[in-house]
Amino acid sequence: MKEKRILNALERVDEQYIEEAAPAKQKSKKPVWVIWVAAAACLCLAVGIAVPRLIDMFHNKGGAPFQTHDGPDSLAQEIASLEFNGAFYEATDIPEALERYGLPSVITENMAGEHLSYLEPNGDAGYKESATETDIELLEYTPASCRGVYIIRDRNKYLAALFCNILLLDDNSSTGMETLYGFYGIESPDDIVSITEVDWNRGKAVGNAVTGKSEIAAFYALSISLTSYGNNDFQKIVFDGIPEDRQVKAHTEFANDLRVIRIETKDGLRFYIKVHPSFGWIYGDGTLSYYQIDAQMTDWLSNNLNK
User: Fold this and answer.
1) CA 50 to CA 68: how far, in whole Å?
2) What crossing angle do the helices spanning 231-239 and 247-256 adopt, rounded to 10°?
3) Which of 14, 180, 215, 230 could be joined to 172 by an S-S link, Cβ 3.0–4.6 Å?
């Protein structure tokens, strides 16, 4: 019944916020990749719904249909799926998408570093690892060597594989914010150069960036100390005490109570976390985990964002 209430609420909420209101329902330990026109969307049913960020970004902008580069024999599509080393990625060469995540607008051969794996078509408009040598490779991203970004060489085309989310063991697993930071090479607050509230649909800053070392250090320390919750526990805490006839409204209100924070690393990479201030929660897209905001984090957000 709860899933039905949530789906009804989604008709009133922007599609990009589905994962904020939808409870997880484990159907498979394997990922399911949904094709939207010619592109693969990151839809992981192992632990819940991970809305495809890049697909959603350009769908909301009303862009033209995606095109393949080299005909039906090439997988170098504008957006394609990849599962690698316990995480899901979206591979793309769309300039606007690359710039939003802090990469150059064009991926070139000189950005490709150490070989990590050979890839092959997965039969679902995406890639998978190959046990044998192929003409598709997964490579390190030389300007910022980390798990947040890789390079895919698909024959003579180069794409960026952008981190989407980790694969958790079940629908109530969770992990700390430091796991997300680790994907982008952040080991201390010194690895962060700015924290900025943004309008996600437009990709534009809202207010001034936080660049002071003391403010960044405080945010880092507070964020990694927050208690993480899996989807099931989060749903129980936030929604189980609400009467049946108010469930749809409650989920809609949560989804709409959204502020997006962009974090930029010293290597120029950018990633995003979602804050629901009225409800007192942070959602980490990459970790598929929820973090309950404490009084100190509430004060930091109030004092530093949108100023």
Assistant:
1) 24
2) 110
3) 230
Structure tokens, 75? 């997988």
Separation of alpha carbons 126 and 150, rounded Å: 15
For residue 65, pLDDT beyond 80? no
Domain extents for the chain?
A: 54-166, 177-304
Report how far residue 297's alpha carbon sits from residue 219's, in angstroms, rounded to the nearest whole number.
7
Using the structure block, give the residue that is written with the tokens 């007192």: 280
Within the chain, where are the H helices?
Answer: 2-10, 18-21, 53-60, 95-100, 177-183, 213-225, 231-239, 247-256, 295-304
Q: Using 50, 70 and 90 to split pLDDT, how confident is the model at 23?
A: low
Report the chain's mean pLDDT, rounded to a whole number: 81
Per residue in 151-174, pLDDT tens? 999 999 999 999 999 988 888 899
Q: How far apart are the first and last CA of the chain?
A: 42
